[in-house]
Amino acid sequence: MEQKQNIKENLCNGKELLECCINKLNENQQRETGGNVALYPTVIIMMGNKCRDFVQYIKNTLDENWNNACFLQYLCVVKEDGQWKVFFLKDGDNVNTYIWEYSSINLEISLDDAIVKMLETEEKIFSSRTSVKLEYVLDATEDNSVEYFKLFQQTNNTMCPNELKTLYLMLDQRPGDSHAGASHRLLRSIVKDSVLTGSQTVYLLSNYLSSGQMLSDNNIWQNYRLSANLILLGGNKKGSGSVIQNLFRGFKTVSYAFVTKPTDEIAAVSIRALFHGLYTSEESKLFHEMPANEIKEKLQMDEYNGFLYLEELFNKKIKAKFPRETDWKYLPFSSWQDYKKVQGYTAITLEMADNATFGAATAFMQKHYIEPVKNFFEDNNEIMQCKEKISGILKKNFNYFEILYLSEHQESLKEMVASLYHFAGSPEKDSFYKRLHDLGVYESKCIFYNYAKKLIKSELELLLESAQNFKEIYIKCEKEIEQQCFITGGESKSVEKFYSETVREYIEQKQHFNHSPAFPEVFRVSNIKEELLQAVWNEYLGLIKNNIYNCNFEQELDNRMNKLNENGRHKFVSEELKKRLKGSVRIKNTIEIPMAKAGCYYLVNANAEYAKTLEAAESKEYVLFDLNRTDCIEQLEIYNITSPGLLHLAGTGDKNYDNTKSRPDLPNKGTGI
Amino acid sequence: MIIQKADQTYQIRELEYKKNMGMVTFNWRFKEATDFLVFIYDSRHEFNLITAKEIIEEAGFSDHDIINSTKKIIPLRKNGTLKMMHISRREFLNNNRRLQLPVNEFKKNIPYGISVYACNYMEDKKKIYIYQAVLEDNTCFLPVLINADIQYKKMPFSKDKLCILYLPVIDGYKDGAIMYHVSGIVPDFPLPQQCLGRELTITIPRQSEVSIRIQEKYKKYYKDR
User: Fold this and answer.
1) For A363, which of B162, B175, B204 is closest by C-beta distance?
2) Quick check: helix, strand or coil at residue B102?
3) What interface predicted TM-score (ipTM) does this complex get?
């Protein structure tokens, strides 16, 4: 199976690889936006520094679900050095970059500019332009939060008299003055002093749920996604007026539940199984006992203990400079008779030739057979090229697992390589000059192999060392990924089982179709850590092309949960949502306060079976919103807080948080809440 | 005698020689010098000015002696492998910037090196200041002329002929320094010591000729006539 290489920017460790795998799988869950659009021009205003970093959770949800989301405007207002500063969100090159640029010192001016930008769009972009929606988000623990709230109340745009203002107030009920204390003070200030006008709505979204569950720093994004859902529900073009009315006016809170395809976990299980499976599968296939003749064949050794590639090198670079064998005829002799006598020798040796030529035979051999080979090995360039050639051949002929095997038999290997080069000998009928020539070639080759075998030995040592290093790198990367993966709960076991099997099938299929080794890019001995991670990433991309990874929530559940029938699935989802919805009201008060349920909403892709079942029921008890994502089903219940004066946040204990100094704060984990 | 570091002013350049009519004539160029010291040595042994100075001092020659021994060759080693000569600037210029030595100063079978150094003689101190050379421009070599005797003998009804090659024995000969070449054949044939001083018979193609060649690194020792 061919894979399209997707070069990531320098994956440095297993954690980064895991994050990329998760992001990629999440990316694949998104579809092109469906038919939903924002009805009104909408401005999202992030108030203060703390909530600004969470804008991505709002923007991503709106971008995924509204076709015209790119026209919405985002502002951020902060109080610095006693004055307000307003920033607008600039369009980034990358969908994940959020750059705020300075706009003005007056929110109203910036607001007007933002609204004008939207009004200037083509008519079809926003169907209704007589109203404008202003969505404010404020972290209750922000410094000067009371002033921010007043700003929310008092800021008006000059363009559209009909403005629907909603504040999503993020409460932090963790103990401590800067958490629960600050949230409590702001809340008391709001409910005591402020009266919301007809066009103003405040949603109280706390991290402390009615069940006692507290959202951690890793989960607090849910409240921002929830606020985006409320924006979608309240501003969607498709939606009946009465239903939407329930979303506005007064103090409200929300209970929120969602079931989602465990994409993150699927990615984690898959990459972990892939990393492990690649090694174990290839090892079982490729690590084997190698007999001596197999090793020799891979080393390209011949029967004389020479090496094919060295023979080629010798012939090309050294032997080509040798004299012709007939040139030996022109040696000096004491007489012509001696010359003829030597011609008759059947097994002439160099000594015999020297005796007849006063040592000229050795001098000739020295100059024309020995010197060239010595000169060759004095040339560093030649040595480098030789080493590269040897290294290339070794890497090509031995795969990683075979090299590991050789690592365990180093001594035998070195002995094999170092074995003496044999003289093939000359046939009896050869002339004396041919014999002398062959002798010269042999002497030269012995010296050549003496040098060259040392090079082979050193390259082998480097290769064996590389293999050991590679093994350590592989194990390290695998550990890094494992450390990031947490498997808990029943669902996790089924994810583990199902996707591990999927990965196993992928590996087997590749091994079946590809020649050995099946994953040469992964098991390249010279790979450094980044290259290994890149290679495994590429395999992962191949793996997730399987349709199993691109299923929507229900299909995935179907695949994994032993093929539940339609009723079974519906029941499972309903029960899960019910379980999660119960106790998920986004506020925990010290006393029970009256809350009236204003509406129930399901956000689910219209093509999902669950959506169709809900729609078919034609119930007036809930409203359906066609969510673009296919990997989750969300349910919201809106509650009107009819007596906001009774709000006293739980977590403040018996402390009087109306004054600032009360008890030491919990360490701030730096999330903005 | 005091050896000074190389100085651009006291440098000898373009030392050359010519052999003519029983004389070897040396000439060179210089900028400044009151005197010149000429060293003659067997080029097969390394020449070193510092070593030469030590030999001079061991032999008991004073600077004054050297200055007064104009145009006289002083042997510094008994075996004749190192000799020295002084010539004053005036004498050199008077002789048309030449130094002439009889050929018989140079033994036949010894390759010589000649190095000339510019000096500054301080009369008041009676000291010779001799300046090191920067490049090897102050040195030239007199290689031994090789007289090879090459004769040919035809062989009837044969496509070959015989070449009889004779080379005299050379003291201190380096094996392989002299080679013979057969025309039409690519490689040269280096000759070891044992080949000298005897007649060598080489069977060569009828149309070929044999010539003598000197290996590159021995060209300062030997020269083909």
Assistant:
1) B175
2) strand
3) 0.84
Q: What is the SS3 assignment for A451?
A: helix
Residues in chain A: 673
Q: How many CB pairs under 8 A join A and B?
A: 72
- Contacts with B155 from chain A: Cβ below 8 Å: 336
Tell whether A336 is within 8 A of chain B (Cβ).
yes
Q: What are the structure tokens assigned to A454, written together?
A: 């040392």
Q: Please tell me the distance in Å from B167's CA to the nearest CA on chain A.
A: 12
Beta bridge partners of B210: B182
Per-residue pLDDT reduced to its tens digit, A232-249: 988 877 765 666 778 888
pLDDT at position A580, please?
78
Q: Residue B102's Cα: distance from chain center in Å?
A: 14
Amino acid at A437: H
Nearest alpha-carbon partner for A58 in A153, A122, A138, A113: A138
Virtual torsion, Cα A63, A68, A71, A74, nearest 10 deg: -40
Question: B213: part of which helix (H) or strand (E)?
Answer: strand B210-214
Q: What is the pLDDT of residues A528-567, one digit of tens each?
A: 999 999 999 999 999 999 888 888 887 888 888 765 566 7
Task: Report the C-alpha gap between A215 and A218 in whole angstroms.
Answer: 8
pLDDT digits (tens, 9 = 90+) for A420-456: 887 766 666 678 889 999 999 999 999 999 999 999 9
What count of other Cβ atoms lies within 10 Å of the Cβ of residue B157? 4
Cα separation, A663 vs A131, in Å, equals 46
b/e code A262-289 from CB counts within 10 Å (16+ = b):
bbbbbbbbbbbbbbebbbebbeeebeee
Asked whether the beta carbons of residue A330 and residue B203 sit closer than 8 angstroms, the reply is: yes
Angle between helix axes A14-29 and A529-543 (nearest 10 degrees) is 20
Q: Which amino acid, residue B75? A: P
Q: How close A373 comes to chain B (CA, Å)? A: 16
Q: Give the mutation candidate from A334, A343, A358 for the B interface (greatest B CB count, under 10 A).
A: A358
Question: In this structure, is the dihedral angle defined by the CA atoms of residues A215, A220, A222 and A227, taken in order, positive or negative?
Answer: positive
Torsion angle defined by CA atoms of residues A359, A360, A363 and A368, in that order, rounded to the nearest 10 degrees = -150
Facing A368 at nearest CB: one of B182, B187, B198: B187
pTM to 2 decimal places: 0.70
Dihedral pair phi/psi, residue B88, rounded to 5°: -80, 165
Identify the pLDDT of residue A504.
Answer: 94
Task: Please indicate whether, in this complex, the C-beta atoms of A363 and B182 are within 8 angstroms of each other.
Answer: no
Q: A561-575: string of b/e by CB count within 10 Å (b at 16+)?
A: eeebeeeebbebbbe
- Reported as a single tens digit per residue, the pLDDT across B141-197 is 999 888 899 999 998 899 999 999 999 998 888 899 999 999 999 999 999 999 999
Mutate to test the interface with B, among A336, A342, A354 (most CBs of B within 10 A): A336
Please identify which residue in the block is written with the tokens 């040392």. A454
